[in-house]
Backbone:
């Protein structure tokens, strides 16, 4: 009851404190989808987690062997079966329903008398069902379920790994639950057991986090489970890292001499192999450990390879605050660099990320992108001025990126605006006055 009361208080406070954020928040998240066509091959799962899985597996087995409680495996098998196959059944039922949506919606719309709310529902069912079918590659629910089932059994590495891990961990937790109840919570000299149990819980939660995306994932604008894997695996890495580090120490102190030597050699080899990427990654990123070029300054490359643009960015940092107009383009590129480096707002950053983190708004984003293109391309000053006023633009950047993206027509800028900054590569025009019309 104390715990429930505490949770309620914290939830209420969290909502109240973040209410201004929630009121204007639009998310790209669109609920759960069944993961029918997407699953992780076992070899890839082990490549990802082998340095952590090996010690936690051995730790889980050692718990059962050390306590001589193989009978606890029965409870572990039951729990793992309920969890794994429960998710499996839920996923397949969900997938079957989603596949049938389009047909059901078409049946509703086929009725000539349908109108109002029923028409909207039918249309929505057809739309969602069609999107799901395109994502899965088939609209036949029977084919989808059967093929997904066959693929899972043809490549069982990941779900089978997690099934076995859950069996072992749940069996280990069963040992400690029984022991604590028998001793009425009295701590004994052996009771690092509560710590062992906590580490087993870390392993169990990690197993749950990696098992979930095998059967369901969070829907977003990408349509795949990429972001679900990304976020869930991150958390699992943290939990299993802590558990694996603890397991290595405990096993090193507890295993018999021969078993310890085998374990030490095995885990050492795995750790050495797992360092391949960090070594070669550093080798590449540091330009073969060239100490002369090493720096913690993430902007040093701009200063070195594009000093003219860097000078313009430095000027903007110290200029009066105002909205920037600059070229708009794809994510993880040089677009939006002047706003990024100066800290001044621009009309639009990377459209993909803006849409992703603002929950859509594609009409608004598209309008802004088209307006900036028109601003640079048009020969009509009246049209350009209207765009400037609409977004209260104070600085217009013209560099190689703006020229290559839009073939910028600068005659109108030269005629009606003043040049606030200029060097061999960048010209920044300044708008003398900004309308009070506001940003649309």
Residues:
């Amino acid at each position: 009851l104390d715990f429930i009361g505490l949770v309620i208080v914290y939830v209420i406070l969290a909502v109240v404190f973040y209410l201004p954020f929630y009121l204007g928040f639009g998310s790209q998240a669109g609920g759960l989808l069944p993961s029918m066509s997407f699953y992780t091959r076992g070899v890839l799962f082990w490549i990802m987690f082998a340095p952590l899985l090996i010690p936690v597996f051995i730790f889980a087995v050692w718990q059962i062997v050390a306590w001589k409680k193989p009978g606890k495996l029965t409870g572990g098998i039951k729990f793992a079966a309920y969890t794994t196959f429960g998710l499996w059944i839920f996923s397949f039922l969900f997938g079957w329903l989603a596949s049938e949506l389009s047909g059901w919606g078409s049946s509703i719309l086929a009725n000539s008398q349908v109108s109002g709310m029923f028409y909207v529902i039918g249309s929505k069912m057809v739309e969602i069902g069609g999107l799901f079918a395109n994502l899965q590659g088939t609209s036949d629910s029977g084919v989808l379920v059967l093929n997904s089932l066959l693929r899972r059994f043809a490549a069982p590495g990941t779900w089978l790994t997690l099934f076995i891990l859950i069996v072992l961990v749940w069996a280990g937790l069963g040992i400690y639950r029984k022991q604590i109840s028998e001793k009425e919570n009295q701590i004994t000299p052996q009771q690092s057991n509560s710590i062992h149990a906590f580490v087993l819980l870390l392993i169990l939660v990690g197993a749950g986090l990696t098992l979930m995306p095998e059967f369901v994932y969070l829907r977003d604008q990408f349509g795949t489970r990429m972001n679900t894997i990304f976020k869930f695996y991150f958390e699992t890495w943290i939990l299993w890292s802590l558990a694996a580090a603890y397991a290595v120490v405990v096993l090193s102190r507890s295993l018999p001499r021969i078993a310890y030597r085998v374990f030490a050699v095995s885990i050492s080899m795995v750790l050495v192999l797992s360092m391949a990427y960090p070594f070669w990654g550093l080798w590449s990123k540091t330009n073969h450990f060239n100490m002369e070029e090493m720096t913690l300054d993430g902007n040093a490359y701009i200063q070195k390879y594009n000093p003219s643009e860097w000078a313009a960015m430095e000027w903007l940092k110290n200029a009066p605050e105002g909205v920037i107009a600059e070229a708009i383009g794809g994510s993880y590129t040089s677009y939006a660099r002047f706003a990024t480096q100066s800290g001044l707002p621009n009309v639009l950053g990377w459209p993909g990320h803006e849409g992703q983190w603002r929950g859509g708004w594609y009409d608004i984003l598209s309008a802004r992108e088209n307006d900036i293109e028109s601003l640079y391309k048009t020969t009509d000053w009246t049209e350009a001025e209207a765009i400037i006023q609409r977004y209260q633009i104070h600085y217009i950047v013209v560099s190689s990126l703006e020229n290559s993206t839009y073939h910028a027509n600068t005659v109108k800028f030269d005629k009606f605006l003043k040049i606030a900054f200029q060097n061999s590569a960048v010209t920044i025009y300044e708008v003398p006055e900004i309308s009070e019309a506001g940003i649309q």
